[in-house]
Amino acid sequence: MKHPKIVVTGGSGGLGRHVVRHLAPKYSIFTPLFEPNPIVDEGWEEVTQTTGISLMDEKAVTPYFDKVGFIKGAVILAGGFAMSPLISTSVDDMEKMWRLNFITAFLTVREAAKKMPEGGSMILVSARPTIVPVAGMIAYSASKAAVSQLVKSAAVELAEHDIRVNAIVPSIIDTAVNRKSMPDADHSAWPKPHEISEVIKFLLSDASKLTTGTMIPVYGKS
């Protein structure tokens, strides 16, 4: 039996690489990349990487999903982060976060839904500041709050098609990039990529068939 096909966006990121490797034994993974940035070594037949795909471009996302074909899941990790005080945040800053976090998620959810005729599961990424506000993150938090609403609305609309839509809500994830940017932080308290990958694996599986429209905290004690 062939492995179920899923799409993973943001697969070359600090979390995405762990997720792809964690899921590859059980799924046939398709991951769109804007620039060449190999996620796995040669020989990983379970992972198909396609470059030159901007997830902010409707004209790129739609044909990408048409080429991938029918799928059973989508793990939507693509996005970005930026900080600035409210009084220093420009419209350009706000629009950048909106496009990186919300537009990429919206287009992926919309196109993935078209490719799940037998139902499936989508997992998106919101952010802890949407629950516990943090100063200096107005643009980032607003864009991630929109992602949370996308999850809730899509979950209701797609329920009749047996498509589940949920979001994980992490704090600062323990990646090499985050450790470098915050060397004095307590890294031991940060959620680990492999721990988050386990939650995503559960949400993709039939074991989570009763769960949809939820925001699932994955930040432990951090």
Unreliable segments (pLDDT under 50, ≥5 consecutive)? none
Q: Which strand order spans the largest sheet, edge to edge or round the barrel?
A: 3-2-1-4-5-6-7
Which CATH class is shown?
A: Alpha Beta
CATH topology: Rossmann fold
Strand percentage, roughly?
Answer: 15-25%
Instruction: Determine the fraction of residues in helical runs and give it as a percent range.
Output: 25-40%
Q: In total, how many beta strands?
A: 7
Characterize the overall form. Answer: globular
CATH architecture: 3-Layer(aba) Sandwich
How many separate structural domains?
1
Helix-strand makeup class: alpha/beta
Explain this structure to me?
With 222 residues, this protein is α/β, with parallel strands linked by helices. It has a single domain (5-214), classed as Rossmann fold, CATH 3.40.50. 38% of the residues lie in helices and 15% in strands. The chain is built from six helices and seven strands, in the order βαββαβαβαβααβ. The protein has helices at 14-23, 58-68, 91-114, 138-158, 176-181, 193-204, and strands at residues 5-9, 28-32, 47-50, 73-76, 120-125, 163-169, 215-217. α3 links the parallel β4 (73-76) and β5. The radius of gyration is 17 Å and the shape is globular. The termini are far apart. The model has no long low-confidence stretch (mean pLDDT 92).
